[in-house]
Every structure is written in structure tokens, then in C-alpha cells.
């Protein structure tokens, strides 16, 4: 092939589709990709956030450590991350004053689910996060979930870190992320999200978590202007969902010709108690 390519007038033809006899189920999360939940926040903040192409990516490489090649096929987070970074850079060219979290929200809520090995749509958010990044959809999120420095400080305080900032702690599940996670769902729990309109209009909130009773209040959001923010509370109560197993669902906001999907993952538990309890007092005999 190399010898032919060096000849004058050498040509190559690309044909669309998979010409082999082996079906290719893509996009699909690689087997070596790390999975959630995030232990650092007890599963109350969904990780990973997003998926992007990261297997056998043709990339520029350092010849000295790559058999004198200038290009090679690489795999891993080091390949997926540039895809997301490039997509974010494109977004800032359209919305240069947006916060990083606003851009992140638009990318996450317009993503598409990846496929399983059988070719079906995957709901395993511990593997894919919100889903596979879709640059063709990201500029029309309809609504976003923004967060700034104080939100992060509140999250850090909520997981027990002293930031010396005076910011009140928040439950990690209440961090204004474009995803919802509850690492231990005992009884009912209500989480809060602040929704900001990118396009004014009426948006219908629809929520579904199999095996879990889920409601969003209000269920209809009427935005009269761009940049308007409204608060939505989401109440989750275990029903038929198995204990100690992750239940995956979603919350969507549809309206004004746009659709934003927020992934939800909760782990129902029968009870919650600390591993150990210590104290002092008078012994009773």
C-alpha cells in the first residue's frame, strides 16, 4: 500500500457503510472505559459526565516515541477529551460569555445514548454519562443548568471539606448539574434544580425512573425571556426498584423546538446508618 501510494496518480476510494460480515454496534462504550459511580461523593453526583469517540482515533504523535511515525491510532480518555474540548471551543465561539458549566450543560443535555453490544439503546449512565456528544444538536438545548464558583464551594462543604469561604453546604445531589444522582435513596428525597431558558417559551417537564415514583414540580415552565431562571423540585420515592441496585431514568424539558434530557440514577436502600457510632455516658447495669 505504501509503495502504491507513492506512485504518481495513486487514488483511493471510500465506500459508505460496513462492508464486512461483522455487525458494528456503535457508538458503544469501550470495555476498558472506567465506570461510575463516583465514590468521592457517595454516588450523589453522576460520573462520568459525557461520552465521546475514543477508540482507534487517528492522531498526531511524537515520532521519536512512536516508531518514527507522525500519525498513529490511539485509544483512551486522551482521545475522547480532545473531542469534547473541541466541541466546547466551538460553543464558546457562539456564546463567548457563557460559563463553562453552561456550555457543559448544553453538551450533556443534547447528547444521545450509546448502544449495547446487542445494538440496543443503553441506559447505563455509569458507563456513558449523559450519552454520546452530538455537535449537531448542542447549539439548541432550549434550557441549561448553570453553576458558578459558589455552587462548587457549597458542594465541597457538603461532602465535608472546609473551604473557609463561608458558603453554606449543600447536599451533592442538589448541586445544579445537568444530571441527577442519589447514591442512597431511603424513603423519599427531593432534589432541586435551577433551569435557565436559552430560548423563551413553554417547556413540559417529563420524568420517568422505572421502579421509582418520580415527580417534577412544576411540570410546565413558562419562560418569557432568554436568561430567565425557574426552580424545579424533583421528588423520588422507591417502589418496585430492587434494593442496592442502580435505577436509571431521565427528566426531559421539551418546548420551543428544543429538547433537553437530564439523566437520573438512584440506588434505593432499605435504611441508612453510619458504620460506627461513638459516645460517652454513664454505663447502665
Question: C-alpha Rg, in Å?
Answer: 23 Å
What is the count of helical runs? Answer: 5
The tally of beta strands, per DSSP, is 11
Q: Report on the biggest sheet.
A: 5 strands, mixed
Q: Globular, elongated, flat, extended or rod-shaped: what is the shape?
A: globular
What is the ordering of alpha helices and beta strands? HEEHHHEHEEEEEEEE
Q: Which secondary-structure class do the elements indicate?
A: alpha+beta
Low-confidence stretches: none
The CATH class name reads Mainly Beta
The overall average pLDDT, rounded, is 95
Task: Describe, in plain words, how this protein is organized in 3D.
This protein is α+β, with helices and mostly antiparallel strands and 285 residues long. The protein has a single domain, classed as Immunoglobulin-like, CATH 2.60.40.2310. Helix content is 16%, strand content 26%. It is built from 5 helices and 11 strands; from the N terminus they run αββαααβαββββββββ. It has helices spanning 2-5, 77-94, 100-109, 125-128, 149-158, and strands at residues 57-60, 71-74, 143-144, 180-185, 189-197, 201-208, 212-217, 220-223, 229-238, 247-255, 258-268. The strands form 3 sheets. The protein has a 5-stranded mixed β-sheet. A 4-stranded antiparallel β-sheet has the order 3-5-9-7. A hairpin with a 2-residue loop joins strand 10 and strand 11. The longest helix has 18 residues, at 77-94. The termini are far apart. The model has no long low-confidence stretch (mean pLDDT 95).
